[in-house]
Amino acid sequence: MKSQITKLLINEEGMTTAEYAVGTVAAAGLGGVLLKLLTSPEVQDLIWKIVQQAFSFLFFR
Question: CA–CA separation, 33 vs 44, rounded Å?
């Protein structure tokens, strides 16, 4: 009887499904934030300046 109660209390069946759901929601949220950041004009200008400096450093030293 004790082992059956212990199995019921420790049973984690379905737990992996919940973990996948939380991970999926977190990944979707992070993707949304990255999309919003990368489409903003300020961040696009910053990335463009970094790329320009990198190429000017490589080719025009």
Answer: 15
Query: Can you say how many angstroms the Cα of residue 29 is from the centroid of all Cα atoms in its chain?
Result: 7
What DSSP state is assigned to residue 60? -
3-state secondary structure (DSSP) of residue 27? helix
Looking at every residue in the chain, the average pLDDT score rounds to 84
Please compute the mean of the pLDDT values over residues 25-41 and round it to a whole number. Answer: 95
Structure token digits, residue 16: 């992996």
The predicted pLDDT at position 42 comes to 95
Give the Å distances, CA to CA, from 17 to 10, 33, 45, 48.
16, 24, 41, 41
